Every structure is written in C-alpha cells, then in structure tokens.
Amino acid sequence: MDSEIKEEIPVHEEFILCCGVETQVFKCGPWTDLLNDQSANRPKLLIFIITDPNAQEIKDIYGLHGQVEHKLAFLRTHVPKETKLVVIGHSIGCYVALQILKHAPELPIIRSFLLFPTIERMSESPSGRIATPLLCWLRYILYVSSYLLLKPCPEKIKSWLLSVALQKMNVQSDFSLLNLLEPFCLANAAYLGSQEMMEVVKRDNETIKEHLPKLTFYYGTIDPWCPKEYYEDIKKDFPEGDIRLCEKKIPHAFTLHFYQEMAEMVAGWLKDDLSQIETETEGNKD
Predict the structure, then answer these.
(1) CA separation for the pair 102, 70 (Å, rounded)
(2) What EC number(s) would the UniProt record show (predicted)?
(3) pLDDT in tens, 117-132
(4) Torsion angle defined by CA atoms of residues 105, 113, 117 and 120, in that order, rounded to the nearest 10 degrees
(5) Residue 213: CB partners within 8 Å, gap ≥ 6?
(6) Are 197 and 128 in contact (CB under 8 A)?
(7) Exposed e or buried b for every residue in 10-46, given b needs 16+ CB within 10 A?
C-alpha cells in the first residue's frame, strides 16, 4: 500500500478465555471471528504480534514457559489452521517467537520479525545487571509495597497518577491502562521478569539455524537490553542471516514514541511476502 493512501483500520478489543486465563486481544481489521468466517474475503494471512486447554494443563501460566504455552494455545485454538502467519516479537516477545517456531512446526509461519531481541544473556546486559537483583532478590519488597500503597488507593487517584505519568512521557493511549497499577499485575510482571533474567541465558542457535530463512533480526545501537555486542556475535555465527542493525538510534522501548516509524519499516519488509501470498491465492483461483 502506498504511503500516500491512508485509511481508517478498525481496532477491536476483546477478552477471551485462553488456558483458563482472561486474555486481552486486539484485532486490527474488519474481521472479528476468523474461525467461523467462511467467506471468500476471509484473510489468508494473520500478523501475530506478541504481547484452549484447561488451566491445569499449563502450569505456572504467568511464568516464562507458561506464557509461551499460552501463545501456542491461542494460535492453535483461535486461528484457522490454513491461515498463514507472520509472527512479530519485540524484546522478550522475540524469545517467545523462537519458542513458537521450535515447539509448533505445524503452524504455517512464513516470516518472523524479531525487534530488539532479548534472546540471550539478559542478566549480563547493562539493564539486566540492574534488573536482576531487583527482580530476583528484592521483588517481594515490591509485592508488599505495591499492595500497601495501591490496594487502598481509589480508582480516581490511580487514573490521575497514570495520566500524569503518560503526559510526562508524552505518550497517548486509546485504551485503559489502569490495570498497570494493580498490585496483582505488578507482581506478575516482576515474577515474569525474574524468570527472564534467570532463564534467557544461552541463544537458541539450533532453532535459529533451522528457521533462519524466515527470520529477520533488528538490533539497536543504544539498546541496554541487547547491546551492539550481541548483534556482532550473532552476525558472526549466522553471516548469511537477515540480521540488521538500527542506524536511526531508535530505543529499545520504541512503542512509546517510534511506533509509526517501526511499523512502516516492518511493513516495507513484508511487501515481498504479501505479494507472494497474493500470487499464490490468484493461482489457486485459476
């Protein structure tokens, strides 16, 4: 699509039960129920951006491995099997994306974009050296303090605090972020973060090698979570891979201020894949 053409794309917010956990899903486009939509206009490609068995079947749902299983369950349960997939991961979402490729070879994933990937040595990174003691050793202090401070706090005050913080960061949101100040959410985030520090250590070269043709890595030059050294190391190990280094000084948390620039960049990378799908679709019609 040409950059000059702008159209409003509807965004649907839904809450579904996946693995026994209420799961927030954002859907971009006019389709709300892909499984039951049998029309000819049903999309042939789904872009899955990482953000049902019974709950008992997935242990530790809020841990790192539980989150991987949760995303796999969603794809297997809520997406038609014949729908081709593009998986986009950011930060720890890149680790999840690689795990999906590893554990679900039956899924028709044609491309995966790993943006600012935290897929190795997280605790050794500049930010990891700070986060590891906080998340692994001191997180119980966070649990207690957040509960004591935020639990009795009225919703209006929480909403005001959040709006002030967003204004200071110059960030706008069309959806409610009030859950960010819930002690339960903060505790789960800290717990997941502690597991990331302990478990994301060695890069999964075997999975990367197996799926290298469909992978695109994008590293930052000012990223304290995956420094330039990590880019240089993976580039040496996989010189034939599509491994790129950001030349625009986009930060790790690009979703705050550089989301439009990143979206346009990834859309440009996807053009060839979309053209191939359109060609295959036209061929099947003939």
Answers:
(1) 15
(2) 3.1.1.13
(3) 999 999 999 999 999 9
(4) 30
(5) none
(6) yes
(7) eeeeeeeebbbeebeeeeeeeeeeeeeeeeeeeeebb
| CA dist., res. 104 & res. 75, Å (int) | 10
* Sequence spans of domains, the chain: 11-121+200-285, 126-199
pLDDT bucket at 160, cuts 50 / 70 / 90: confident
User: Nearest CA to 114 among 237, 232, 211?
Assistant: 211
Edge-first strand order for the sheet with 242-245 is 45-50, 84-90, 109-115, 215-219, 242-245
Catalytic positions, written as ranges: 91, 223, 252
CATH architecture of 11-121+200-285: 3-Layer(aba) Sandwich (3.40)
- Tokens standing for residue 27: 């859907």
Q: Reply yes or no on whether the pLDDT at 165 is more than 80.
A: no
Extract the runs of DSSP E, i.e. beta strands, from 19-146: 21-28, 45-50, 84-90, 109-115
Alpha-carbon distance of 241 to 28, in angstroms, equals: 30
C-alpha 161/C-alpha 284 separation (Å) is 55
Give the mean pLDDT of 253-260: 83
